[in-house]
Structures are given as structure tokens and as C-alpha cells.
Design brief:
The longest helix has about 35 residues. This protein starts with about 35 loop residues before the first helix and ends with a helix. The N terminus and C terminus are likely disordered. It has 21 helices and 16 strands. It is an alpha/beta fold. Strands 4-11-10-5-8-6-7 form a seven-stranded mixed sheet, covered by helices on one side. The protein is about 45% helix and about 10% strand. It is found in: Membrane. Keywords: Acyltransferase, Calcium, Lipid biosynthesis, Lipid metabolism, Membrane, Phospholipid biosynthesis, Phospholipid metabolism, Transferase, Transmembrane, Transmembrane helix. Belongs to the 1-acyl-sn-glycerol-3-phosphate acyltransferase family.
């Protein structure tokens, strides 16, 4: 395909469209289905006046494509998995057995609570003594300070005992630090970090927010924690460099990471973050199980105080820890952290007898946002964010912004939005083009759209190579006097090619949509910010852009930039 540039016409001639063949190429060592197959168009486009009509995968005709002027071939939405990796199976106390057990355990609870509090205080004091006067945090903790930390480690075992983990079944043994400088584990509850602190005393990678937790923040500082802000690229890069430095030096403790990045219910593994695998060191996977009948111990979508209370009121809580064989990166995997992570994930999923999904921490953010806004089925808003990030490079924070927009459309209890509410939020007048925009997202052609369809469609348009150029040209059309601002009159003049009749309320609604800082005029920054947040709206400028000689417009813009 010819390289796309600013001087290329946004709408090519009908003869330029050719049938496309999608090839899936498998790696000899680690064959995985190529993501290209799901990201490339799988349809043949046919011209129909100014809009192409596409054929979907089942052979039925879809509505005209309003984004064909951006060379969009349409998009597909993968089927949703039936696995919910965050749902706790026993969020409520139910059944006579559980009630009787809680009543019988109440006197024991008091003793357990005293043991928990005493162990926490003693461990905290021992840690304060071990850290007193220690300033050189870039080098390993001196051995005499590490010996003092044994007091805290023993206290950690008493804390586990107070939570009902009287004995813990182990299978296998941890490999020597010299052989396996990095260990990774699935993450089900807050219990695993306590266990690993007692068992291995490793360096951990944790969120910066953990440092401010009373008592806990002090204790994890003694583990020479590597702090990371998951939303900051700079912080993530610094954390990876620190993991490499410590893993390559035997005087540091081994490095422990939870590559899922959050807790799950243990019924599945979710996608792995790559921090543990970039360094290319041998890794020992560890898996943790919590066998149960009446009480699910996972820290899924459930509050911490409630989970702690349930743990205190059990006769005994079961926990199994299995140390798996080392995974040595092959030569090509040392340069490819993605393949190394997939190989490790397959080994852990096989040992746990579960599947690994494309969910990530971003899905938990979406779940919590939907629950916070009291949606009837908040789990229906999970989209397997790792797949979205891989295909479209949409971050979790951007996905949450799109969810905010979608929820303002008043979805029904099943999580679907009808055309009227969709057009209302995007300030679109009901017309043929508006219907085509909605039909573009409604891939199942049932008259409503889900959040997953809205997110995939918005991300698809946002990441089209010509989207940025279309925004530039659209603003140039609106800025008729060249002052880098667009007035209400200029906006209406451009949109007359799209909406033949606009009343005052409709004009004001569209103007307010673009005037993001509410200063009474639309700056270039306002215009681009609006279209980044509402990429589907770019289609309303297509009639005006298609009437212009876009090659000449692109030449003029390039000349202005130079």
C-alpha cells in the first residue's frame, strides 16, 4: 500500500479498492495467532455514491460506512468471554451453616484479632529498629538489619495464623536466588504478599500508593520495594531498569512480581504485564490456590474489611503454594518479552488448570466505574482491555473516559444504548449520516450498541492513519479567517453540508461540544481535544471535506507548517 501522507486524498477512487487477503504467520518457536488477522479489514468494499457498503462476516449487508473517507474498512468486535476473573463467588453470608459458624467463631475472633494486632505492632517496631539510621537505599540492606527483620517475618506467620491459615500446604521448593533471581506468582488475595514476606523476604514491585498505608508502608520499605505508577510511562521505565539492576546482582534479594497487576478470583489468569520478563532472567513461577466450599477467599470485587471479617470467622482457611520448575528464556525470547510472558503464562495456567484471558487491570477499572454509577450489570462493561491495548493502543484511562461518555447515554439494564440517546450525547441531529454512524457501531444490526462495540468503534476511528489529517483539514475549513479560532457562525457554515436545517438549540449543542473550555470560541486545542474524546464525530465533516480538493488543501497546510 502506498504511504499515506498529508497530501494524499482522503477518498480514493473506486478502482483503488482491491480484495484483501489476510495471512496469519506463525513463529517457528512460539506460534501464536497474529493480531493482524483481527485488526485488518476482512471485507471487500464496494462504492455506493459517497459511502461504501460492506459485507460482514456472515454475508449480510451492513449499513454504509461513514468513515470510508478515512480509508476505514470497518471493524469487528471479538466475542466476549464467559469468564469473569474478578467476581467473588461468596460476596454475601448465606445459608444456616455459615451463620452458625460465624456465631460459634465470634469468641475465637476476639483472640484472633488480639493476635493480629499484637503481631502487627511487634513486627512494626522491629522493622523501625531495623530501618533506623539506614540511608543507603540503593544498595542491599546490611545483614545485621536483615537478621532483625526475622522478627517481623515470624510476626507475619502469626498474622497468617490469626487469619485462619494454621497450616499451609507446599509443593516443590524455591530455587536458589542465584539460579532464579526473579519469581512471579498469580495474585488472588492480600494473603500472598504476607506469605512471601515470611517465606522468601524478596524485593517486591508495588504501587506507590502502598507506601502511605499505616504499618504496611514501613514494612514493605524494609523489603526495598520498587515503586511504580502504572499510569506513568516514565515510572514504569524506571521500575524495569531497577528490576534489571537488582535481578542481575546476587547481593540483592530475589525480585517478586505479580504480573497480572491486580488480584483475581483465581478461576483464571489475566494478561501479564511485561516488567518481569524484559530483563530476560530465568524465572520461577509460583502458583497459589485457595480450596474452599463455603467461603471464597479471593479479593475480587469485595471490600477489604468484609473479606477480613469473613476470614476471621472461619474454622480454618486452606492455602496451597506450588513452586513450578524454572522457565529459562530462549535466546530469541531474551529479546522478546511478550513471548517469554506468554510461555510463562501458559505454564502457570496449565498448572492451575485454568484459562488465561485478555483481561487486565483496566477491566477492573471499568467494572468499578460501572458499579460506582450503579449499573445493574457492571461486569458487562469489561472488554478484555489487553486486546484493546494491543490492537489500538488505547490506555485504561482513555477506556474509562469512553465509558463515562457511554454511561451518559443511559444504557438499559442489559447495557445497551438506543440510537436516540446515542445521538443526544454526541449532539447529532437525526439524519441519514447520523444513522450511518450508529449503524457503523451496531455490528450485530439489532438496533442498539454495547459499550464494547462503542469502544472498539471509537478506538478504530481514532487510530486510523488519516484521522489526524482529517482533523487538521476539518479545522482549516472551520477557521475561514485564519485566526486559529472557530466561531459559531463558521462552524454552522461548514456543517450546513451535513445538516440541512439546524435550530438554535442544535447549533448551541454542537458548539458547546467543541468549546471544551467554555470561553465562547473554539480554539485548535479545543477542536482536537473534542475529536480525541469523540472520534466518531469526525464523520460530520466528511461531506464538506469530500467537496474540496483535499490534495491542494494538504499542500497549503504543509506549506503553512514549513
Amino acid at each position: 500500500m502506498a504511504e499515506l501522507d498529508i497530501t494524499s486524498p482522503l477518498l480514493s477512487s473506486p478502482s483503488s479498492y482491491q480484495p484483501q487477503t489476510v495471512l496469519t504467520v506463525h513463529d517457528d518457536q512460539d506460534s501464536e495467532p497474529s493480531n493482524l488477522q483481527s485488526s485488518l479489514p476482512t471485507t471487500i468494499l464496494h462504492q455506493n455514491h459517497n459511502h461504501g457498503r460492506t459485507h460482514n462476516e456472515n454475508g449480510h449487508h451492513s449499513s454504509p460506512n461513514p468513515y470510508e473517507f478515512l480509508r476505514s474498512g470497518g471493524f469487528s468486535v471479538p466475542a466476549s468471554t464467559t469468564v469473569d476473573p474478578f467476581r467473588n463467588e461468596t460476596p454475601f453470608i448465606s445459608g444456616i451453616y455459615e451463620v452458625i459458624k460465624i456465631v460459634l467463631c465470634l469468641p475465637v475472633d476476639l483472640a484472633r484479632l488480639v493476635l493480629f494486632g499484637a503481631s502487627l505492632v511487634v513486627g512494626y517496631m522491629a522493622t523501625k529498629v531495623a530501618l533506623a539510621g539506614w540511608r543507603d537505599k540503593q544498595n542491599p540492606m546490611p545483614k545485621w538489619r536483615c537478621r532483625l527483620m526475622w522478627v517481623t517475618r515470624v510476626c507475619a506467620r502469626f498474622i497468617l495464623f490469626s487469619f485462619g491459615y494454621h497450616w499451609i500446604r507446599r509443593k516443590g521448593k524455591p530455587a536458589p536466588r542465584e539460579i532464579a533471581p526473579v519469581v512471579v506468582s498469580n495474585h488472588v488475595s492480600y494473603i500472598e504478599p504476607i506469605f512471601y514476606f515470611y517465606e522468601l523476604f524478596p524485593t517486591i514491585v508495588a504501587s506507590e500508593s502502598h507506601d502511605s498505608i499505616p504499618f504496611v508502608g514501613t514494612i514493605i520499605r524494609a523489603m526495598q520495594v520498587i515503586y511504580v505508577n502504572r499510569f506513568s510511562p516514565t515510572s514504569r521505565k524506571n521500575a524495569v531498569n531497577e528490576i534489571k539492576r537488582r535481578a542481575s546482582c546476587n547481593v540483592f534479594p530475589r525480585v517478586l512480581l505479580f504480573p497480572e497487576g491486580t488480584t483475581t478470583n483465581g478461576k483464571a489468569l489475566i494478561s501479564f504485564q511485561l516488567g518481569a520478563f524484559i530483563a530476560g532472567h530465568p524465572i520461577q513461577p509460583i502458583i497459589v490456590r485457595y480450596p474452599h466450599v463455603h467461603f471464597d477467599q479471593s479479593w475480587g470485587f469485595i471490600s477489604l474489611p468484609k473479606l477480613m471479617f469473613r476470614m476471621f470467622t472461619q474454622f480454618h482457611n486452606f492455602m496451597e503454594v506450588e513452586y513450578l520448575p524454572l522457565i529459562m528464556p530462549s535466546d530469541h525470547q531474551k529479546q522478546n518479552a511478550v513471548r517469554f510472558a506468554k510461555r510463562t503464562g501458559r505454564a502457570m495456567a496449565s498448572a492451575l488448570n485454568v484459562v488465561q484471558t485478555s483481561h487486565s487491570y483496566g477491566d477492573l477499572m471499568l467494572l468499578m466505574k460501572a458499579a460506582q454509577l450503579q449499573q445493574e450489570k457492571p461486569w458487562s462493561y469489561m472488554v478484555e482491555m489487553a486486546r484493546i491495548e494491543s490492537l489500538y493502543h488505547i490506555s485504561s484511562l482513555e477506556a474509562v473516559d469512553f465509558l463515562d461518555k457511554f454511561l451518559s447515554m443511559n444504557p438499559d439494564p442489559s447495557g445497551c444504548v438506543k440510537p436516540h440517546d446515542f445521538l443526544r450525547v454526541l449532539q447529532l441531529k437525526a439524519c441519514t449520516l447520523s444513522e450511518e454512524i450508529f449503524g457503523f457501531l451496531d455490528v450485530e444490526k439489532n438496533g442498539s450498541i454495547t459499550f464494547k462495540q462503542f469502544l472498539f468503534g471509537s478506538a478504530h476511528v481514532l487510530k486510523l492513519p488519516l484521522f489526524r489529517q482529517a482533523c487538521d483539514l476539518a479545522f482549516a475549513e472551520c477557521d475561514t479567517d485564519g485566526d486559529n479560532f472557530c466561531t459559531k457562525k463558521e462552524l454552522v457554515d461548514v456543517l450546513r453540508h451535513t445538516f440541512r436545517e439546524l435550530d438554535d438549540d442544535e447549533v448551541q449543542g454542537l458548539f458547546n461540544l467543541f468549546d471544551t473550555d467554555n470561553d465562547g470560541r473554539i480554539s485548535r486545542d479545543d477542536f482536537f481535544y473534542c475529536l480525541r474524546k469523540n472520534p466518531l464525530v469526525i464523520a460530520i465533516f466528511s461531506p464538506r471535506l469530500l467537496r474540496k480538493n483535499l490534495s491542494k488543501a494538504g499542500d497549503k497546510m504543509l506549506e503553512d507548517i514549513v
